[in-house]
Amino acid sequence: MPEPLRLIQVGAGGMGRAWLRTIATSDDVVLAGLVDLDLEVARSAVTGEVPVARSLDELAVEADAVIDVTVPAAHPTVSIAALLRGLPVLCEKPLAETVRECLPMVAASEVSGKLLMVSQSRRYFRVGTAFGRQLAELGPVGTLTCEFFKAPHFSGFRERMAEPLLVDMAIHQFDLARKLIGAEPVSVYCDSYNPDWSWFDGHAAANALFTFADGTRFSFTGSWCAPGQETSWNGRWRAVTAAGTATWDGDNPPVSEGLGAELPDEPEEIAGSLAEFVEAVRSGGTPQSEVHSNLVSVAMVEAAVRSAALGVPVLIADVVSDAFTQALDTVQQPELLAALKAWEDDLPFPLDPPG
User: Fold this and answer.
1) Which domain does 230 fall in, by range?
2) Residues 278 and 337 in one domain
3) The sheet that has 141-149: what strands, in order across it?
4) What confidence tens digit (pLDDT) does each residue in 182-229 have?
5) Which of 128, 61, 163 is nearest to 263 (CA)?
6) Exposed site from 47, 183, 223, 238, fewest CB < 10 Å?
7) The whole model's pTM is what?
């Protein structure tokens, strides 16, 4: 059996503690150190002799990789610093808050030659994987729908956001739609709004219709202020193909005429992300949420927000192109800027991973 990968985790908050529990139960990794701006929070999150520090610079330990579980605004700084130190990174979703901030992260992965993977945990539900296998048997999907209705009272920043549902939640469903359809999105028309009874300041409900490169339409209808008869946090899905229809309620095995729903025996949620990351680091393979691919999921969210603001369909490629222009004006690190400029005459979309 290979030696466990030595991990440094950055971030010891609520999600950070979930990752620490996952690391502790894995035979493939061991925690080499923990970083958090609040040392007391870091110390209270670990037991034994695990070194803690306020930054990667202050943590003098040997490691094989980094888990970035900081707040989204800190993802670019933390992940780029780790990559340029020669360490592969598994970053919590979203990759960054904007596509513009994602692009230097893509460049850092290329410059360093190290893996940057995003933990899109909805890709690692066994019942969701069974749903995807049913669709593969049925053939190309013509229409895919997801209904998402919840009524959470978070308090804090989410209830003050301009687009809480789209920005903080919908990337899960948008990214999963890419996996289920097996093609890339081309455009989106989105309408977002806030019902009179909503306890959110911003738009807590939205309808988005994506067109994919193969002609598939993906429809997302959701609300975070929908009390009663709530859906799963994964949403409620329906896929229509020429050979039949499959449905998945988000929690239980999917249903399709004439097809079984055998559940795979594999790690789920963030444990699934970690397992795929470890395998990719060891083998040099490309995991399904590698940074070049995941950039498209972030662009789907940004395009939906832009469409809702403008009231017109928006091309996903336009969002990436605009972000690229902005990144050229804001990136300061010479090696990252050089990597970005190498794309200037022929911006790849979707961006292809090196090699």
Assistant:
1) 126-256
2) yes
3) 255-256, 244-248, 236-241, 141-149, 217-223, 205-212, 185-193, 314-315
4) 999 999 999 999 999 999 999 999 999 999 999 999 999 999 999 999
5) 128
6) 47
7) 0.93
